[in-house]
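#structure-requests
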Amino acid sequence: MTAMALVGAPLVACKDPVETRREPASGAENRGLAAIERAGCGSCHEIPGLDWPSGRLGPSLEGFDDVGLIAGQLPNRPDILAAFVRDAPAVKEGSSMPSMPVSEDEAADIAAYLYGLDHD
């Protein structure tokens, strides 16, 4: 019985990869990239589709939809990502990412862009 529980445990702990696949609303990806450029997200992150700047202070955001947890602790969902983009210190205590000068709509568009990057 114990061995069966251990064998089954990893399957229960893994999220369904299909749940990470999201199709953004029409136009949200383009608005998201524009907001990323305007807010200067590339100064800290490497972001596919953004030629310059390509910072390395923060993690690369390539394949973001496959990341297990946002900032290593938060569920990887668009609404949580949008809140994190706007005010990371309020969403995750101790975050080194600063609050960003983006509106709620811009943060949602940034999340749409990041989730639409990689559908491998």
